[in-house]
Amino acid sequence: MAPSVADLQTPSTKDTISSLKQEVKKGPSYPFYYPYFDVNEKFPPTEIFEFTDPGTRADPAKPHLLTPNTTTHDISPYIGTEITGVQISQLSPEGLDELALYTAQRKLLVFRDQDFKDLGPDRQIEIARHFGPIQKHPTSGNAKGYPEFHVVYRDADHDPFREYLGDDRANRTQWHSDVSYEKQTPGTTFFFILDQPDSGTGGDTLFLSQVEAYKRLSPEFQKRLEGLRAVHSAVEQAENSRKRGGPVRREPVETEHPVVRVHPVTGEKALYVNPGFTRRIVGFKKEESEYLLKFLYDHITKGADFQIRATYKPGTVVVWDNRLTVHSATGDFDKSVRRHAVRLTPQAEVPIAG
Ligand SMILES: [Fe+2]
To answer: Which of 2, 13, 61, 298 places its Cα 20 to 30 Å from the Cα of 29?
Structure first.
């Protein structure tokens, strides 16, 4: 009798298929950082703290950060520099001060070949704390026992990113500035990759410079923005988490921030509105507020000439100044692919009006 198709599948082919399946099913490389949600975890309301940006102490020449071994490459003129030849974990306090200054100047730094992901949680937190007290996220996955970590995780079975955005979106772009509803918004922010698509492509982060976005406006328009304040809200994020049975660790807040803020180290002015959390302009009627915010969102999101994509390789750490930038994930990789990354989010000053 002629062999069936099943018989023609040799044992070795079967083994290969089964090992491929196991490969797809294998767990995260860093299970400690698997997102942890405890609906009973509660944090007290945040309190105002004294803050001095470490960048104010930095030597402008940055001798501890930019040594002869360091190579830098500007990704675009307005935002982003890629750095090789330096380990964040080896930087002295002076080097970390210089990192704060350089991040403020370039808005975003991409550090390659870092050992950061293998330092362990305590040392990672210690380094990030140099830049301010670390925000504990009210709704996102954290690491068990370490609420300082904000975990970004997607795989075939677990995809909060797509759940959050829903299925009726034509694209998955979601420009925002992290947790801008906090009274003291994040400053020098760390993001490191643990697992990424094996293809090495997909899952970039889009960033734009709010400093350049502000500079592009006419002096007359800049004058109109002066003194305006906007409401940033945590309410939708909390409601969304509640709806999905997730935690709301702190009651959601609504906070007013200036529409234009000044960086405490560089003195640069930046727009400080984002579609993710900014809801209305204080003192404007509804239609007026929508009109102005729509213009500002169109302006920043269409400004491809002051945007970049941060790309990830194993060992990449991206550091950005959350006061001067807006960013969006790109969910452009296959649903079955695991992507795992962690953010440490030091909080900075109460925004200074520009
Ligand atoms: Fe973000």
So the answer is: 13
Query: Based on the structure, what is the number of domains in the chain?
Result: 1
Q: Is residue 256 part of a domain?
A: yes
Each residue's pLDDT tens digit, 105-136: 999 999 999 999 999 999 999 999 999 999 99
> What pTM did the predictor assign?
0.91
- Cα of 292 vs centre of ligand 1, distance in Å, is 23
Contacting residues for 262 by C-beta, under 8 A, at least 6 apart = 268, 269, 270, 352, 353, 354
CA distance 10 to 115: 43
Distance from Cα 89 to the centre of ligand 1, integer Å: 23
Distance 239 CA to ligand 1 centre (A): 18
Residues whose Cβ atom is located within 5 A of ion ligand 1: 178
- Over 70: is that where the pLDDT of 5 sits? no
Mean pLDDT score, 78-85: 98
The Å distance, Cα 331 to ligand 1 centre, comes to 13
Cα 177 to averaged position of ligand 1 atoms, centre (Å): 6
CATH of the domain at 256: 3.60.130.10
Q: Report CA(189)–ligand 1 centroid distance (Å).
A: 10
Alpha carbons within 13 angstroms on the beta-carbon side of residue 110 total: 21
334 occurs within a structural domain: yes
Q: Does any domain span residue 123?
A: yes
Q: Is residue 80 predicted with pLDDT exceeding 90? A: yes
Q: How far is the CA of 207 from the centre of ligand 1 (A)?
A: 10
In a domain, 125, yes or no: yes
Domain holding 89, by residue range, is: 49-353
Tokens read off for 71 = 């190579």
Integer Cα distance of 68 and 273 in angstroms: 39
- The two tokens of residue 84 are 């090789």
Rounded mean pLDDT of the chain? 92
